[in-house]
Design brief:
The complex is a heterodimer of chains A (115) and B (113). With 115 residues, chain A is an all-beta fold. Helix content of chain A is 0%, strand content 52%. Chain B is mainly beta and 113 residues long. Chain B has no helices and 12 strands. Classes of the chains: A mainly beta (115), B mainly beta (113). Chains A and B meet through strand 5 and strand 10 of A and strand 5, strand 6, strand 10 and strand 11 of B.
C-alpha cells in the first residue's frame, strides 16, 4: 500500500548496533502498528499507538522501543540489535472505528538482517 | 489465550479448481475476523472481513462466513486463477482487557496453469 511507506526497505547490520526503522503514512489514520513476520509464525505485534500520545506494548515488545513523532510517523528502534531480531518488519495503520472492526493497511516491509 | 489456527501449506491447485483454506480461532469477547493476502515482496492487503456471527465477507470471488458455533472463518473461492497465488492470513482483532490482533501462520497457495 503506497500510502504507508517504510524506510529502509532492506538493512543489514551487526550485533549490538542501534537501528531505527521508520514509517510514515498519508492515510490520515490515528492508529499505527509495528509487526514482525517470521517464517511459519505469521505476524506478531510489537507495539501499537492509537494516537500521538498513546504507546502500548504488543505481544513481543522486549528489545524494541517506538516513538510516535506525529500522527503520520511511527518509528521502531532496536537499541542493541541481536541476531534473533532478524525478520521482516511491517508497519500498519487503521482508522479508529467501532470496536475493532477496522482493517489494517500495511507498508511493503523492511527486511532486517543482523549478523 | 486468544489464537488463530489455519491449515498448513503449501496448497497447490490447478487453475479453475475450488479453494478452501481452513481457519479456526479462540478468543475472549467478540472478535472481528479478517482474511489478508500477501503477494511476493509486498505487505498484507485486506481481502475480506466479518465483524459479527453469521456475517459473510466477500471480495474478488473469495468468501468467508463468521461461524461462532464452530469458531471458524474458512476462506473459499469457486475457481482459482494463477494470479491468486499468494500467502493468505487469517486474523482476529478484539479489545477485551486490552487491544489484541492475532494472525495465523499463513497458508501459501500455488495455482498452476
Amino acid at each position: 500500500d503506497a500510502d504507508v511507506t517504510q524506510t529502509p526497505r532492506n538493512r543489514i547490520t551487526k550485533t549490538g548496533k542501534r537501528i531505527m526503522l521508520e514509517c510514515s503514512q498519508t492515510k490520515g489514520h490515528d492508529r499505527m502498528y509495528w509487526y514482525r513476520q517470521d517464517p511459519g509464525l505469521g505476524l506478531r505485534l510489537i507495539y501499537y499507538s492509537f494516537d500521538v500520545k498513546d504507546i502500548n506494548k504488543g505481544e513481543i515488545s522486549d528489545g524494541y522501543s517506538v516513538s510516535r513523532q506525529a500522527q503520520a510517523k511511527f518509528s521502531l528502534s532496536l537499541e542493541s540489535a541481536i541476531p534473533n531480531q532478524t525478520a521482516l518488519y511491517f508497519c500498519a495503520t487503521s482508522e479508529t472505528g467501532t470496536g475493532d472492526n477496522q482493517p489494517q493497511h500495511f507498508g511493503d516491509g523492511t527486511r532486517l538482517s543482523i549478523l | 489465550g486468544d489464537s488463530v489456527t489455519q491449515m498448513e501449506g503449501p496448497v497447490t491447485l490447478s487453475e479453475e479448481a475450488f479453494l478452501t483454506i481452513n481457519c479456526t480461532y479462540t478468543a475472549t469477547g467478540y472478535p472481528s475476523l479478517f482474511w489478508y493476502v500477501q503477494y511476493p515482496g509486498e505487505g498484507l492487503q485486506l481481502l475480506l472481513k466479518a465483524t459479527k456471527a453469521d456475517d459473510k465477507g466477500s471480495n474478488k470471488g473469495f468468501e468467508a462466513t463468521y461461524r461462532k458455533e464452530t469458531t471458524s472463518f474458512h476462506l473459499e473461492k469457486g475457481s482459482v486463477q494463477v494470479s491468486d497465488s499468494a500467502v493468505y492470513f487469517c486474523a482476529l482483532s478484539v479489545n477485551t482487557g486490552g487491544f489484541k490482533t492475532i494472525f495465523g501462520a499463513g497458508t501459501r497457495l500455488f495455482v498452476k496453469a
